[in-house]
Specification:
heterodimer, A: alpha+beta, Dna Ligase, domain 1, D-amino Acid Aminotransferase, Chain A, domain 1, 6-stranded antiparallel beta sheet, 5-stranded antiparallel beta sheet, 12 helices, B: alpha+beta, Glucose Oxidase, domain 1, 4-stranded antiparallel beta sheet, 10% strand, globular
Chain lengths: 357, 570
């Protein structure tokens, strides 16, 4: 595949390109095909990483290093940290070949032209062929081609975060088993952002959509650090069944470069960060995704104040909602557990023991 | 050369693994506990043989299928017509942990869809019974009867496999609710607050009671009231045949007995073959119709039951108010499932024991008639003194055998056992406490603890009662004691009496509409007496151990069932 096209505009992609550019990029393409509002951008193929790793010598170096490692299963986290640091160093320390630099540069320039901003601010996100939420790195508000190329390399290297290595070791996936594509997307000016689940993530209830939202960028929700707003919407009627307004003390916003936390002005802290109309609009977008993709989705959305409603909502990514990741405990589970533990463990004390005195 | 029977010859009439033989069974299991619920009055040899073999098989199957972590089943033996039980306790923690993994999987479908699984099992049982009913036992050849005997046992065996799966799962749900309510809210399953949540379920037992009550209403409407009021149950049938309306009523009644999926295939006595089933002797159900008529037109079974069901929902709602929000779902599900334990406990006997045992009585009596005709035994009922392998052996050529020496010997022993008190346990441990501690409790067996062996009453000295038991259904009552040892004597019970008995079974249900209170020697909070007491709202005290021996018929009693206290006034 060495001669295949290394970079694609999102609109050239669809679900069938999962292995070519990674799930996140393929889904963004699919969303555009569906006519959903996705910020413009381009995808760097997984083969581009392979080309970089081959030509720079990183691949051989990593492969040699890995072959010398013993059994990692059950090892101390400190060892994973060390392995991570060393492999990431092998990637980040290499130069990106000129041909790739040029290609990325030209797509970046084209994106700038398209949105009429030179040195357009972008996000640089990882896109593996499997959805591995939270394993790899994402860089926001990246500005200028040098910065973009630097972050591209860092995202590639993030295939070897300690948590990603540990995950693969535990799942018996080869240490070098994740290679990443990259989504470079125009940054949206975010008034509010968040996630929408088309299944209740705790109970597994599929009749409702759950939306978590905060002021600023979606990272203010995803990190789980803040007390955010929650809206529960009925899938059929799109009626808002439940609204919880959190006290949102902090938000994530664009800095000059990159992003950072900042205080939310006091009067906005306890105000809903979405209007009811916006809640319903987000819910409807989420539903159209679920319908099209055939299973419950976990999607990230943002409200851009630069556009008038209803065209102010953008979708940043979507993936199958992993309810199983947090195992749902039903009432039956609890009963089984109680019965097993209370009555049938040798050390359990039956409260109903007959007393024969 | 014929050997002359000599009285000096010692006859060894014990079967290893069936009869309790101390030198073999005691070292193996260490402790054997008397099962008062199923041993009073003593069982006939034929019945005891079946019980020991297949009931213990059922326990083992349920413990295997459900992978009960701490118990692999019960072992049963019979001695003097009584039943003793011992438990195959799993003692190795590693094995317990392994069994627990499968237990969790096996329990799930029952907790998720108890009614569905039970419905499928009911269908299976009724299907097997339909086949057995198909044989015309009076015109069958001896060979057909021989095969029938095999089919009866196969069906009986399957019945026990089904029986205990539902029982273990539903009783666990009950026990869990009891444990949690006691721990969290200080409510015991003996308390009215708890018991009110477990009453008034619509099930087959109630539906049949209702049907009989409706036949009572119909009889009144047809002007047949006096036929029932003025005659003993045995005479009612003949009287009904004397009028066109009576005949018409009786035809309808028998149609129900024959066409309902249970109908008259219901033993009068719960655990033996010695008494007729309803279809065989309609005097039993006719007597129940009479009871409902005697209660007068003011009595409305349906309304009474509806009221109990309404109170149940009120009690559940009141209880759930006390439960923290995060646990409401859990407690509500536990309450609903525990309710199924109550309902299953009432209903399952109709589909399990009472039906198949009616078929067995019919089949074995038919065989008994063949044997009696040829002089193999004295009378058809003597078949109950034989064991199946003996029956199989003689049935094809009955004229070649004289088994009277055996049936007479066993009958004499059986009759004597009626007056032989049996010890509550056998053990080679130092004391009963140690026996319970080592050979019963580690089984974790919910059926043993809640039904058979029962909890031991804890007297409250400040109440100064004469006798103590466990509260089966809360409430207070005063009345005349009526000690009833066998079903036959139930007819002596007068309205307003307090029934004192060894234990009861669903066949005795209707008498609960007549009495003010019930006291039993045996059982726990999930035994039949307790459950039916709650269904009928009759104060009930169970597991007094010595009620029938301490109380005499005619004595005035006061019972405070809530506290398990019994006062003998005079």
């Amino acid at each position: 595949m060495g001669s295949a096209k290394p970079i694609f505009r999102f609109e050239e992609l669809g679900q069938e390109h999962n292995n070519l550019v990674g799930k996140k990029c393929a889904n963004l393409g699919e969303m555009i095909r569906m006519g959903l509002p996705v910020p413009p951008g381009f995808a760097i193929s997984i083969d581009t990483y392979r080309k970089f790793a081959e030509e720079s010598g990183a691949a051989e170096e990593i492969s040699r290093y890995v072959s010398r490692l013993g059994e990692l299963k059950g090892q101390n986290i400190a060892l994973f940290d060390k392995v991570s640091q060393e492999i990431r160093g092998m990637i980040e320390g290499k130069e990106i070949p000129e041909s790739i630099r040029k290609m990325v540069g030209s797509y970046y320039k084209e994106l700038g032209k398209k949105v009429k901003v030179s040195n357009v601010a972008v996000s640089v996100r990882s896109a593996g062929t499997e959805s591995r939420p939270g394993m790899f790195e994402t860089y926001l508000n990246v500005i200028g081609i040098e910065d973009v190329l630097d972050k591209v390399k860092r995202v590639w290297a993030s295939a070897y975060t300690a948590r990603a290595i540990a995950f693969r070791v535990n799942k018996d996936i080869p240490i070098t088993g994740d290679e990443l594509g990259i989504a470079v997307t125009k940054m949206v000016n975010a008034r509010s952002a968040g996630i929408a689940f088309t299944v209740e993530p705790v109970t597994g209830d599929t009749s409702k959509i759950v939306i978590d939202a905060n002021w600023g960028l979606g990272e203010g929700v995803v990190s789980g650090a803040e007390n955010v707003d929650r809206f529960v919407v009925d899938k059929k009627s799109f009626a808002i069944l439940d609204t919880h307004i959190g006290k949102k003390a902090k938000q994530v916003i664009n800095k000059k470069r990159g992003v950072g936390w900042e205080e939310v002005p006091l009067k906005k802290q306890s105000a809903p960060c979405l209007s009811n109309d916006e809640v319903v609009a987000v819910a409807k977008l989420a539903m159209s995704l679920e319908k099209h993709l055939g299973k419950p989705q976990d999607m990230e959305w943002v409200i851009d104040p630069d556009f008038p409603p209803p065209n102010n909502i953008f979708l940043l990514q979507t993936r199958p909602a992993e309810v199983a990741a947090k195992k749902v405990e039903t009432v039956t589970d609890r009963m089984i557990d109680l019965i097993a533990k209370r009555f049938y463990r040798p050390d359990s004390n039956r409260s109903t023991q007959p007393k024969n005195r | 050369m014929s050997v002359k029977k000599q009285p000096k010859v010692k006859i060894w009439d014990k079967t290893i693994g069936s009869d309790y033989i101390e030198e073999i069974d005691l070292p193996q299991m260490h402790s054997w506990f008397f099962d008062g619920t199923h041993s009073v009055p003593p069982l006939t040899p034929l019945y005891a043989w079946h019980w020991v073999k297949y009931c213990s098989h059922g326990f083992k199957v349920a413990c295997t299928e459900l992978s009960i972590p701490t118990c692999k089943g019960w072992e049963l033996r019979t001695l003097n017509g009584s039943i003793y039980c011992a438990f195959h306790i799993v003692r190795d923690p590693k094995e317990i942990a392994e069994r627990e993994v499968k237990f969790r999987q096996a329990l799930r479908p029952w907790l998720e869809d108890f009614d569905g699984l039970w419905a499928a099992h009911k269908e299976e049982l009724l299907g097997m019974y339909r086949k057995l009913k198909g044989l015309d036992v009076d015109h069958a050849t001896n060979l057909q009867l021989c095969h029938h005997s095999r089919d009866l046992r196969r069906t009986y065996m399957r019945m026990w496999e089904i029986h205990f799966q539902g029982m273990y799962t539903s009783n666990n749900a009950w026990l869990l609710l009891e444990t949690m309510t006691k721990e969290r809210f200080g409510i015991r399953d003996q308390d009215p607050e708890f018991q009110d949540m477990m009453r008034g379920f619509d099930n087959k037992l109630y539906q049949m009671d209702k049907k009989l009550w409706e036949f009572g209403r119909l009889a009144i409407k047809k002007g047949l009231e006096d036929v029932f009021k003025e005659n003993e149950p045995q005479a009612i049938l003949a009287k009904l045949q004397q009028s066109a309306k009576g005949k018409e009523w009786f035809k309808k009644f028998m149609d129900y007995m024959k066409t309902d999926d249970i109908g008259g295939w219901r033993m009068r006595r719960f655990n033996d073959f010695t008494e007729p089933y309803w279809l065989e002797d309609p005097a039993t159900p006719l007597g129940l119709v009479k009871d409902s008529i005697m209660k007068g037109s003011g009595y409305n079974l349906e309304a009474t039951r509806a009221e109990i069901a309404r109170k149940r929902e009120v009690a559940i709602a009141a209880f759930l108010k006390r439960v923290p929000t995060g646990e409401k779902d859990l407690f509500e599900k536990m309450i609903r499932l525990a309710g199924k334990a109550s309902s299953y406990s009432e209903e399952h006997n109709l589909y399990c024991e009472l039906f198949v045992q009616a078929l067995m009585r019919r089949g074995y009596l038919a065989m008994g008639r063949r044997l009696a005709q040829k002089g193999t035994i004295d009378a058809p009922e003597d078949i109950f003194m034989m064991k199946p392998d003996e029956i199989d052996r003689v049935l094809m050529v009955p004229e070649a055998y004289d088994m009277r020496w055996l049936t007479r010997m066993r009958r004499a022993a059986w009759e004597e056992s009626q007056n032989t008190p049996m010890p509550p346990f056998f053990t080679d441990r130092a004391s009963k406490e140690e026996a319970v501690e080592k050979d019963l409790l580690p089984s974790g067996d919910v059926v043993a603890i809640k039904l058979v062996v029962g909890e031991v009453p804890q007297p409250k000295p400040e109440l100064k009662a004469d006798l103590w038991g466990i509260c089966g259904c809360a409430g207070e009552a005063e009345g005349t004691a009526r000690v009833v040892m066998v079903y036959e004597d139930l007819k002596k019970v007068q309205p307003g009496d307090i029934l004192v008995c060894p234990g009861i079974n669903p066949t005795w249900t209707p008498v609960f509409g007549l009495v003010r209170g019930v006291i039993t020697d045996t059982g726990g909070t999930l035994c039949h007496a307790a459950i039916i007491g709650r269904e009928y709202g009759v104060p009930t005290i169970v597991n007094t151990q010595e009620g029938t021996s301490r109380i005499k018929s005619g004595q005035k009693l006061k019972i405070d069932a809530t506290n398990g206290a019994i006062y003998i006034l005079k």
